Each structure stands twice: as structure tokens, then as C-alpha cells.
Amino acid sequence: MSRNKLSEIPEAVYSMKALCSLILSNNQIGKLDANKLIGLTSLVCIDLENNNLGRLPPELSLIPKLRTLSVMGNSFKIPRPDVLAKGSTEVIAWLKNRVPA
To answer: For a Cys staple, 47 with which of 11, 23, 32, 52, CB 3.0–4.6 Å?
Structure first.
């Protein structure tokens, strides 16, 4: 679903329980509903590069099989660019440390 000028993740995506890769790069997505994404328990890869995200919700780290989280090219304030530069494993670990108890 890359390059479609999407401003949010389409609702239909959340019913795709067997989805392994979610490629949403080069859109205009500005906000994520982590609680809905957590329900996609087969997700291994999420590509959100070059969107309008200002922050990543820590709850993304609760997606059990998530290994690749591509988010470069967004206007992040949270997490900081130095965290993002370390790659998916570090970003997911950083998020996991910030999930509310």
C-alpha cells in the first residue's frame, strides 16, 4: 500500500490476522493505533518510512513476532534520531522499555 497518499491505516487491514508484512511507506500517515496493530499477531515487518509520524507508540513492541520496523524519513520527536539510527532491533527494544505497566 505504498505511495497511496494514505493519512491513516485502512480499517480493513486490522482484520487481516495472517498478515506478515505491512508496507505503508511513502504515504501521509501521521498517527498509529497501536492497540489495533497489536491484534495483527503474525506481523513480522512494518514499513512506515517516509510518512508524517511524529512519535511511535511503545505498544508497537507488543506485536509478538515483529522483527523489522522501518521508520526512517519521518519527523520523529520520539524516539530520537540516534535511537532510530541503530536499526529495528534497538528501536523495538527502546519501545518495549517504555510500555506502561
So the answer is: 23
